[in-house]
# Entry
Amino acid sequence: MERRDDRSEFADVDRATDPGHFVRLLDTFTAIDFIRAYKLRSYELLDVRERDHLLDLGCGNGDDALELARRVGPNGRVVGVDRSETIVPEARRRAEGSGQLSRGGKQASRS
# Structure
C-alpha cells in the first residue's frame, strides 16, 4: 500500500487528488488539544481588541478568522483570504452559518 504524502499536495490544494481531504485534515488538526491551546495563545499574543481590523492570509477553512471576528466584535472587521477554490467556499459556508458574515466577498481566480 502506497503512503500518501500530503506535503506536496498541500502547496496546491485544488490540484490535489482529493481537495476535500485538506478541509477534513484542517478540522482534524483543530480538534487536537495542543493545537487548540496553541491557537488560543496566538490570539492572546496578537492582542486583538474590539474594533480591530484584521487580515487572515491563508485562512483555510476560516476557523481562525471566525474566532478573530468574534473577538473584534460587530464594529471590527476580519477578512480571510485563501487561494484555494476548494477551501474558500467551505470557509464562506462556515462564516454564513456562524452569523459572523456581514458582507460577501469575491474570490480571486487562479492565475
User: Anything to note?
Assistant: The chain has one domain: 7-98. Confidence is low (pLDDT under 50) at residues 103-111.
